Amino acid sequence: MSDVYKALADETRRLLLDELMQRDEQTLFELCTKLAMHHDLTPTRQAVSQHLDVLEAAGLVRTERRGRYKLHTINTAPLAQIAERWPTRRTRT
Amino acid sequence: MSDVYKALADETRRLLLDELMQRDEQTLFELCTKLAMHHDLTPTRQAVSQHLDVLEAAGLVRTERRGRYKLHTINTAPLAQIAERWPTRRTRT
DNA sequence: AGCATAGGCAAGCGTTCACTTGCATGTCAA
DNA sequence: TTGACATGCAAGTGAACGCTTGCCTATGCT
Fold this sequence. Notes:
2 copies of one chain form a homodimer. By secondary structure, chain A is of the alpha+beta class. Chain A has one domain (2-79): Arc Repressor Mutant, subunit A (Orthogonal Bundle). Chain A is 57% helix and 13% strand. The first copy, chain A, is built from 5 helices and 2 strands, in the order ααααββα. In chain A, helix 1 packs antiparallel against helix 4. The longest helix of chain A has 13 residues, at 45-57. Chain A binds a DNA duplex through helix 4.
């Protein structure tokens, strides 16, 4: 779980998760394009690739090779555990 | 919210939140002691103080001065927003 | 085969971060 | 008032981080 928190610390990685929420199974180039179009971010392809590596190592992204394409899919499971660790205590009634 | 994610990136800060979940209104020294007792961590007082500053800046900790004591209390509200940003999609039925 | 496309590897660079050290401020009790 | 206690401020250091650059591998199409 330590890797999950570190993965979320970067804004670009959070935006990548946002884009994957919109649609699963996106390639590196698709995600690069959307960062530029939706968020005016123009990091290099390698930078985005490294971000995706971090997300995958944290278990937040699953990948699948299909021919020369590598498809990325979000996995929200680790995120649910964050809210569970520090649950909002019930207001005394 | 960006500060919230960065605040959570450090393990010591997450443990501080854990301790504040156990009991609110703890002083800097109390938290230092608990890090040592419960987690075998012995950072200096200043290091812990800086961590608490980060947590406060992120809105995850509220403080109140009472005489020479500064009491720290957790605020879980920002944490709930994390799970809301990337909700687990319902499995197709 | 030849070429374009999609992605991978690795070194280098500047910044941020966590931490320590040293000193200063403020509060309370005797 | 004096001393002990709780906290604050600031500079310095080493490591981690995000990013770029340059080159390499692999797949698919004509």
